Amino acid sequence: MTDQSRMWLVTNARSGSNTADALVALYDCCDARGIVVERQIDFPDEELPTPEQLDEAGVGCLAIYTGDGTLNAAITALYGWGGSILVLPGGTMNLLSIRLHGDVDAPIVIERYANQAVRPVRPLMARCEKGDALAGLLAGPGTAWGSVREAMRDFDLSAIAETASQAINETTAGTMLRCAEPARGRPEGYPLIEFSPSDRGMQLDGFSSETTGELLQQSWALLRRQFREGPHIRLGLFDEVTLESVDGGPVEVLIDGEPATLGPRATFTVAACEVDLLATDHGY
């Protein structure tokens, strides 16, 4: 049995596409192509694997079938590991999987892997002092809508109402962010700035909600993570950029969907992923 036919698998039942039926279909696809999933790690109930555990088991490939947040945690925990990671589309948006494989489902990625139609890559990310964003990063008071999405995922109606009210208040009255170095866009700032990492650098887009209609449009787009459906402007493509809050407050961010708080001036740089990811799309 070759290394190509052995892998460990990380799953997360809370991820958007990670249903029981989808998991059965994934195992069926692996079985049909002679791939043995030797161990399944159910995060967060089980701890993510370490490089030492994978090396001790002689496993050279870890497949991760989760959303972007769990992908981030699992990948960054394996920085420096000598094996490879196979990202599978197991979440709602699957932005990292689309970067690596195109907009295809997990069985197609497994089929390409089984046919050895893969290439190890280290894609560029957006890095700040609180972490690395492989799929995308959001900054500004508009990130408060991330809490509404979490409440919706739990079907908690009272939490949805409470967090939506807070998010509206934050988006309209919270600390606006502006692009300070280099100076780009509106000096009065934006409630939300999106970072989209690519092999060309970090693309920044500023989103505004100046009227009630724009606020509702942007809020609905944020809930569905279809950010560019809201009013926005392209700020540029950068290797390094510094954002600052207009009133000196903290900079709130979502790093691959996970919240963090930075100081009033925050610098973001391009960095390469520090472990091999397997790509199957012609874009790589």
Automatic annotation (TrEMBL):
Molecular function terms, GO-annotated: kinase activity
Entry-linked Pfam families: DAGK_cat
Sequence ranges assigned to domain DAGKc in this UniProt record: 7-122
InterPro entries hit by this protein: ATP-NAD_kinase_N, Diacylglycerol_kinase_cat_dom, NAD/diacylglycerol_kinase_sf
SUPFAM superfamilies reported for this sequence: NAD kinase/diacylglycerol kinase-like
Identification of the protein by name: DAGKc domain-containing protein
